[in-house]
Amino acid sequence: MAKKESKKDDKQMELIGPGGVEMIDRLAVQVEKAIETIRKLRAERDDLVGRLEEAESRLGDLSGGAERLAELEDERETFEEQRQEVRGRIEKILEKLAQIDG
C-alpha cells in the first residue's frame, strides 16, 4: 500500500514540475496567513457587533430617559399653572378679607 502511495506522490511531483513544490509551499503559507487573518477579522467583527449592541441598548435607555424628562417637564408646567391659579385665588380671598376689616 505504501508503494502505491509513493508512486502516486511521484506522479504528482512529475505533474507539478520543477519548482512546483516551492510554489505549493509558498501557496500553503499564504493560505495559512489568509486563514489567520480571517480568524482575526471574525473576532474583531464579533467584538464590534457586541459593542454596537451595547451602544444601541444605551441609546435606547437614553431615549427612554428623554421621554421621561419630557413627561416630567409637562408635569412641572401643569404644577406651575395650578400654583399660579391657587396663588391668584388666595390673593382674591385676602383682598376680600382686607375689605371686611377695612
What is the CA–CA distance across the termini? 128 Å
Ranges where pLDDT stays below 50 over 5 or more residues in a row are: none
Q: How big a fraction of the residues is strand?
A: under 5%
Oligomeric state as shown: single chain
Annotation field: number of helices: 2
Structural class: mainly alpha
Question: Biggest β-sheet: count, sense, barrel?
Answer: none
What would you call the shape?
rod-shaped
Q: Which series of helices and strands comes N to C?
A: HH
Structural account:
By secondary structure, the chain is an all-alpha fold. It is built from two helices and no strands. It is rod-shaped and about 130 Å long. The termini are far apart.
Can you lay out the helices and strands and say which pair or pack?
Blueprint: H1 2-16, H2 20-101
